[in-house]
């Protein structure tokens, strides 16, 4: 049966790209478009997105968010895109002020306004399913009198959009669901309201119902029971494919792994002025934020000479962590090459192809993309035993017949040093190295399987929903400073 899904997100590659959310949203929507699901992507108008065959209309939004329009067309390979266009939404970066790295001070207003726009689009289009992604879209359910069957994807609990409690008075429908101590928590409201909740890997779905991984919301998530499911993200296997990649020296597949990776390894080492001879080449492609264990990566520096290893790192992010990485590179006596001023996608491709091992010591990782992208190039990952890394990396020493990489025993520097030592020893054994490389490359990391699982969740949300018509009012006739449903006991 054909279904129509309104898919709301703050970013989607290539139209607006910051991190993993953009890649995941893009991969899923493209895979859904190859099925009988019709997808309408709803995105903030950041000011630089061109649409083809444009139509537009005025949105019925609260007074504090007017005037606003919806612009509809196609773009970036997506058949149906709606941009929420309102002065103040457009910025050079979706979330942060580039010169300071701090979030825009009006992000609460910007994404509440966007959520209100998502709600009005859903009211207008009446889709079979409304699919919300992370906190930026979660407040849409507070602006909908009768929500359609709704699915919420949690890409990370690390960001919840917590804002001032005054926002509760601007949510006209069931604002109590968004109340969080003395503030307003958009993500919490959607967790309480959505028909189905998806975490972006099965292991992450288990972690977030526990105190350590739940970021304060574990009890709320646990209450949802089997409404919460875990579906592993995929990657764009068209772009991340050594058989066709234009960014690497020679293309290779399963039958040409040795020659292809050797050529990529030599080219990458020459790019940074190295004659690596017998050294093992470690790769890192990461945002430089606390979540990614950047301090652990820097902590490897004193051990590299003893391991006979070198490291190429690509990443940008927090100023203090950029400084930490650059200092480690300076102190490493030529064993670390760090590119920290940009994200360079062609270089990321060269690192995945040319490295012997990927280092990924995340402190938490809802799913992770880099480990799957690297494994598509036959590069095993050394990773911490968290989140989606557990679902995608099988430790070779624990599972000799199926292993595809190396997981730390403890999520700290000693654990990373030990796992890296084990991985390097394994890499130096040619027959074992080739076996692990082949296993990694044989895995289907595409979005096709995860997309089918999403369709199953959509059907479950539709089957579960018995809509209750709270009111048919629109913002033209309802003031938005009234708490709905009378339950304000948690304000």
Describe it for me?
- The protein has 491 residues and is α/β, with parallel strands linked by helices.
- The protein folds into two domains: 3-234 and 448-464, 3-Layer(aba) Sandwich (Rossmann fold); 254-442, Rossmann fold.
- Helices cover 33% and strands 17% of the residues.
- It contains 16 helices and 18 strands.
- The protein has helices at 20-33, 107-125, 134-138, 186-193, 202-207, 218-223, 257-271, 294-299, 304-307, 319-331, 345-354, 370-376, 387-392, 413-427, 430-442, 448-464; strands at residues 3-8, 37-44, 52-58, 69-75, 78-85, 129-133, 150-154, 163-164, 179-180, 183-184, 196-199, 228-230, 280-285, 309-314, 336-339, 357-360, 381-383, 406-407.
- The protein has a nine-stranded mixed beta sheet with strand order 3-4-5-2-1-6-7-11-12, sandwiched between helices. The protein has a six-stranded parallel beta sheet with strand order 15-14-13-16-17-18, with helices on both faces.
- Strand 16, helix 12 (370-376) and strand 17 form a beta-alpha-beta unit.
- Helix 1 (20-33) crosses helix 16 and helix 7 crosses helix 11 (345-354).
- It is globular.
- Residues 467-491 have low confidence and may be disordered.
């Amino acid at each position: 049966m054909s279904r129509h899904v309104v898919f709301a997100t703050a970013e989607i590659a290539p139209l607006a790209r910051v991190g993993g959310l953009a890649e995941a949203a893009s991969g899923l929507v493209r895979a859904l478009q190859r099925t009988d699901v019709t997808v309408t992507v709803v995105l903030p108008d950041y000011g630089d997105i061109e649409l083809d065959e444009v139509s537009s209309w005025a949105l019925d939004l609260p007074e504090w968010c007017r005037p606003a329009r919806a612009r509809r067309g196609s773009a970036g390979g997506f058949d149906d895109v709606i941009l929420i266009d309102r002065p103040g939404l457009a910025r050079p970066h979706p979330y942060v002020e580039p010169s300071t790295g701090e979030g825009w001070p009006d992000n609460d207003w910007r994404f509440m306004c966007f959520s209100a726009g998502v709600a009005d689009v859903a009211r207008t289009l009446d889709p079979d399913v409304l699919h919300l992604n992370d906190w930026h879209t979660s407040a849409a359910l507070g602006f909908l009198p009768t929500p359609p069957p709704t699915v919420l994807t949690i890409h990370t609990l690390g960001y919840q959009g917590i804002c001032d409690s005054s926002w509760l008075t601007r949510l006209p429908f069931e604002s109590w669901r968004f109340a969080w101590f003395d503030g307003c928590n958009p993500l919490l409201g959607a967790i309480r309201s959505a028909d189905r909740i998806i975490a972006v890997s099965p292991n992450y779905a288990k972690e977030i119902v526990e105190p350590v991984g739940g970021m304060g919301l574990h009890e709320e998530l646990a209450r949802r029971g089997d409404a919460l499911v875990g579906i592993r993200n995929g990657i764009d296997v068209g772009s991340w494919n050594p058989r066709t990649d234009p960014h690497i020296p020679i293309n290779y597949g399963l039958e040409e792994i040795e020659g292809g990776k050797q050529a990529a390894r030599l080219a990458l080492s020459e790019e940074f002025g190295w004659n690596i001879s017998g050294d093992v080449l470690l790769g890192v492609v990461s945002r430089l934020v606390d979540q990614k264990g950047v301090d652990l990566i820097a902590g490897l520096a004193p051990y590299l000479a003893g391991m006979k290893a070198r490291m190429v790192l690509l990443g940008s992010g927090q100023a203090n962590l950029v400084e930490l990485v650059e200092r480690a590179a300076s102190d490493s006596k030529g064993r670390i090459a760090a590119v920290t001023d940009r994200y360079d996608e062609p270089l990321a491709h060269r690192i995945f192809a040319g490295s012997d091992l990927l280092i990924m010591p995340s402190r938490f990782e809802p799913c992770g993309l880099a480990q799957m992208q690297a494994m598509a190039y036959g590069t095993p990952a050394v990773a911490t035993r968290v989140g989606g890394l557990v679902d995608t990396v099988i430790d070779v020493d624990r599972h000799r017949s199926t292993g595809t990489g190396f997981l730390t025993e403890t999520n700290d520097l000693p654990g990373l040093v030990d796992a890296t030592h084990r991985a390097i020893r394994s890499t130096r054994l040619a027959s074992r190295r080739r076996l692990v490389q082949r296993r990694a490359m044989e895995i289907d990391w595409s979005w096709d399987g995860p997309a089918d699982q999403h369709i199953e969740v959509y059907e479950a949300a539709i089957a579960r929903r018995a809509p209750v018509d709270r009111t048919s009012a629109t913002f033209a006739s309802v003031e938005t400073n009234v708490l709905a449903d009378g339950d304000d006991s948690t304000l």
